[in-house]
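CHAIN AND CONFORMATION:
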Amino acid sequence: MQGDKVVGTILKKYSSFYYVQDENNQVYECRLRGRIKTLATSGDRVEITLIRPGAGVLERILPRKNQLYRPRIANVGLMIIVFACDKPSPNILLLDRLLLLTYSVPLKCCIVLNKGDLEPSKSASQIKDYYGANGFELIITSGLTGAGIGELSQLMKGQISVFTGPSGVGKSTLINKLIPDRKEKLKTQAISEKIGRGRHTTRHVELFSLPNGGWVADTPGFSNLDLPKMKSKDLSGLYRDFEYYRQECQFADCCHDKEKNCSVKEAVTEGKIAYFRYENYLSLLNELRESEKY
C-alpha cells in the first residue's frame, strides 16, 4: 500500500529508474530520493517507500558486504570464472589474474570449464588436472548438453553470483540454461573464425532471479585485467596451493623467486606445484614490483 516500507535488492538501473525486487519476487520501479549521496548499484539491498502499485522511491542503501568495481555490483557471494574447454582455448594467466582478484576481495570462487562436449585443449586439461586436484572448486559444464548445470545451480543457490571470464566462452548460454523459463533469453554469439574469440554480447550489469533462489549477474567479457592494489610481498598469500609449502620457507617474508632454501621453489622442482602456475606467479609478482616503483 502507498507509504509502506519495503526492503529489496536492486536488479538493474535503466535510465533514471532502479528496479527493486522484494522477498516475494515483486519488482518495483523506483526513483532515487534526492538526498542519497551514495551511488546505488545492482546488488544493493535497499529500503523503498511505495507510492503506487509497482512503484516506489528508493530511500536508503543498506550496508554492503562487499562491492566490485569492474563490473560495478554489490553484495556478491560467489564469483564464477568461466573458460571453455576449447574454442577459445583458456588463457591460464588470465585465470590466475581473475583468481587473484577474487581472493583479494575476498569472495568464494568456482572455476567453470564450459563446452565440455568438446575435446579439451592442452590448457583446459592443465586447468582440470591441476586446479581441480588442489582445492579449487571446479565444474565442467556444457551449454549444449546441459551437463553440470544442476551442480552449478545448487552451488549458486541463495546468493548473488557473478559470471566473469573472456568473451565467447558461453557465459550467456549457461545463464539461459540456469533460467530455462526466462522469456527474454540473453543474446549469444558465435566465435569469430578470424580472431578466434567471441564478441561481447553483454553491455550492462543486470541481476536475474534463479529458480531455486538467489540471483546471477551477466557481465561484459574481457581479455585483460588490472591487478588489485596490493604489495608484492603479499601476493603469495593469495595462492592457496602455495600455503602448505610457504610455511616451510627459511624466511618469513620469502617471495619465492630469488631466496635460498625456498620450499615453494622446491615444490615446483618436485612437480608438486605446476610450473605454469609458478611462472604466472612470477609474472604477476614482477608486475606488482614495477607498479611499486611509481
User: Anything to note?
Assistant: Residues 190-203 have pLDDT under 50 and may be disordered. The first strand starts at residue 5 and ends at 14. The first helix runs from residue 92 to 104.
